[in-house]
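The instructor's notes for this session suggest beginning with a concrete chain rather than abstract definitions. Hand out the sequence below and ask the class to guess, before any prediction is shown, which regions might be ordered.
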Amino acid sequence: MTPRFDAVGLVVSDMAASVAFYRRLGFTFPEGSESEPHAEAAPPGGVRLLLDTEDTIRSFHPEWRPPAGGGRAALALRCDGPAEVDAVYEELVGAGYHGALKPWDAFWGQRYAVVQDPDGNGVDLFAPLAAE
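After discussion, reveal the predicted structure:
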């Protein structure tokens, strides 16, 4: 038996806000997901994104509490190129989301930026820099 990586799950405070944020990034959630306690999106690549409200988690894990302090997890989204990293970052920040790290040319060879979702989870945007 070999377990296989299938999904990333995030606990969210506001399902509607989280679904709206991830839809801006191209995740396709079924209509009505905004008002559900659990929502799933299956983007190309095969790994699903699962969102559950805090109340849903507490329904089966009553002792669960949101973590204190900074986030420890991030989703990494590959963009088609460095210009798309900049464009997506600017679109999200322009829509009112927190830009945690402005786009920059990272020493490891990527255009790289970080925005935060409505719950403060990091969303890394990256693309390989063109070979020179």
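Then share the key points. The first strand starts at residue 7 and ends at 12. Residues 82-94 form the longest helix (13 residues).
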